[in-house]
Amino acid sequence: MPPLLLPASPSLSLHFAGAGAATAASSSRRAMVAVASAASRSSSSSSFDASAFEAERLRLDADARASMVTTAAGAQAEADPRAWKWKIRKRVWDVLEAEGVARNPRPVHHRIPNFDGAAAAADSLGRLDVFQNAQCVKVNPDSPQKQVRFLTLSVKYGRPIDLDEVIKVDLIVIGSVAVDPSTGARLGKGEGFAELEYGMLRYMGATDDSTMVVTTVHDKQLVDDIPVEKLLIHDVPVDIICTPTQVILTNTAIPKPQGIYWEKLSPEKLGQIRILRELKRRIEQETGTILPCGPSENLPPTAQRRKRRGR
């Protein structure tokens, strides 16, 4: 089985770890990644507490969902350029709940929705050559991708790395709220952290345009009305869609993000993610150039990770 990458919490260095060392919700998710490696087994003395990891992940997810309600409410106005995205998200969330395919945590609104058949979709992904041949897989930490993480994990331990360490990610698995099978256009839940994680990997040289992006969704999350021309430069398209009933190759022509778009990052968003602030400071010091910053925005409160006892 290939190693696993997961987003982790905002600390100064990237953390490569097994599933027990990483979780995500709102901006408490680290703008970092995590990977399990066989070599780390001998260097780690702590074991993975699966139940504690899942409980903490769900707690942070609930906090993040509460904060996203505020964000969505502020983006419903027709004049807001994000309004069209929220209309599609709400429609998909409503359909999943109304037709009885939504699964806990519920309600699925303001989440990457969990769904009936998530394990079957993950198993379809697991049978693909692109997965079987991957040496390193980055997986998001949301509920519907739990089975993907199970299939991916080969060890339960991890090790810290920094931004300069050379890694190669062979496959990215990403959660979605809605996805267009004809174009590969994708909508997440609206926080933008998946896009930032992708940008970080591109900056590190861990991925390139050939790195496949896969999503696992329910068939009812397939849509045909995501306007490609309205997507932003940092929106991440998908190459493969796995549902409980089918595998779709999108042959997407949508360009993938080329890195971190500093001019799109508001001061408030940058303030939420320590590693991005440190990276920005380092680049500015090394180049002698002040990086651009995006316009100010009102962000909802962030979910904060509780400090572990003894730390």
Automatic annotation (TrEMBL):
One cellular-component annotation, GO: cytoplasm
Name of a matching Pfam family: 5-FTHF_cyc-lig
Gene3D superfamilies: NagB/RpiA/CoA transferase-like (3.40.50.10420)
Region (Disordered): 287-311
Matching InterPro entries: FTHF_cligase (IPR002698), FTHF_cligase-like_sf (IPR024185), NagB/RpiA_transferase-like (IPR037171)
Protein name, per record: 5-formyltetrahydrofolate cyclo-ligase
Protein's organism: Triticum turgidum subsp. durum
Taxon lineage: Eukaryota, Viridiplantae, Streptophyta, Embryophyta, Tracheophyta
